[in-house]
Each structure stands twice: as structure tokens, then as C-alpha cells.
């Protein structure tokens, strides 16, 4: 493990800061908050140099439940679903946002684990490194809280590391 971050950590109160282009749900802000923390602990402000071969792995058993519930309620009420929901309904969109912001040029993979999310994510990261697809992997583990509270997320940077 090269770096790790969580949300919440000491001093965090409430929801993670919003992310332009992502609305209504705390899912994307949580992903971005832990990814930024983790990567900045290893690399400062970023972006990473080209050729870093850093994969992004997003693991969530339930995904963006808040966004999905909003879409379901809007459709059931005969309302119009805003276009941003089509973009953000795919977890790859926020993983791609992180990759673009930091210049991560490895694969982007989203997992819906059925067992231990960290173990499944680490196994996938190891496969990507063993196959030569990535030198390191940013593994983001996230679940929104079912009661409407912000939820929790963890990001770990795994692998051989990249020099700046």
C-alpha cells in the first residue's frame, strides 16, 4: 500500500464537497474526496506524469442508491429526469473524472462485489498489475448510508508506485 484515505476523517463534518457535473447524490463527491486525499498524500497536487499506468478501481455493492432513488421517484411521479442523471448513473463517470483530473492513464474498472469488497478490489488490482495493464491501482471502496447520512468511503493506492 502506497497511500490511504477515508471519508470521514477527523475534522470532516457532513457530506463531502460537491463536484461540478454531479447532482443530488453524495456518491460522486465521496469518491472524489477520498481519491483526492489518497493521491495527494502520495503525489501532492498532481497530475501524475504521462505513462504512470495507474488504474482506477471503484468497488461498491450498491452503487449510487440516492441517485437511483431520485430517478425512480421522478419517473413514478411523471416528471422529467435531468440529463446529468444519465451521465452520473454509470459509476465509470466519476471514476473517469478522477482519472482525468489526476492524469491516471491505466484502465478504469467498476466492481459490484458479492463478498469482501476490499479483498475483491485488491485481487482485481493484482490481476491488472500481473497482466501488465497497470503499475499501480487506486482502489476506491464506497457505500452510501441507507438512512440518508453521507456514507463512508476509503481509497487505497496499491502497487509498485510511480515516480514524479
TrEMBL record:
Residues 52-143 form the Beta-ketoacyl synthase-like N-terminal domain. One of its GO terms (molecular function) is acyltransferase activity. It holds the Pfam family Ketoacyl-synt_2. It comes from Micromonospora robiginosa. InterPro entries: Ketoacyl_synth_N, Thiolase-like. This is Beta-ketoacyl synthase N-terminal-like domain-containing protein. SUPFAM superfamilies: Thiolase-like.
Amino acid at each position: 500500500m502506497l497511500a490511504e484515505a477515508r471519508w470521514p476523517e477527523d475534522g470532516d463534518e457532513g457530506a463531502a464537497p460537491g463536484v461540478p457535473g454531479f447532482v443530488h447524490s453524495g456518491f460522486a463527491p465521496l469518491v472524489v474526496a477520498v481519491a483526492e486525499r489518497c493521491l495527494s498524500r502520495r503525489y501532492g497536487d498532481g497530475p501524475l506524469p504521462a505513462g504512470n499506468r495507474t488504474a482506477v478501481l471503484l468497488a461498491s455493492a450498491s452503487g449510487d442508491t440516492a441517485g437511483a432513488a431520485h430517478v425512480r421517484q421522478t419517473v413514478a411521479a411523471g416528471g422529467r429526469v435531468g440529463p446529468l442523471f444519465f451521465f452520473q448513473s454509470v459509476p465509470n463517470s466519476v471514476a473517469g473524472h478522477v482519472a482525468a483530473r489526476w492524469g491516471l492513464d491505466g484502465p478504469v474498472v467498476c466492481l459490484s462485489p458479492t463478498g469482501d469488497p476490499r479483498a475483491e478490489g485488491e485481487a482485481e488490482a493484482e490481476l491488472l498489475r500481473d497482466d501488465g495493464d497497470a503499475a499501480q491501482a487506486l482502489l476506491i471502496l464506497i457505500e452510501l448510508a441507507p438512512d440518508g447520512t453521507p456514507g463512508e468511503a476509503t481509497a487505497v493506492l496499491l502497487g509498485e508506485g510511480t515516480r514524479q
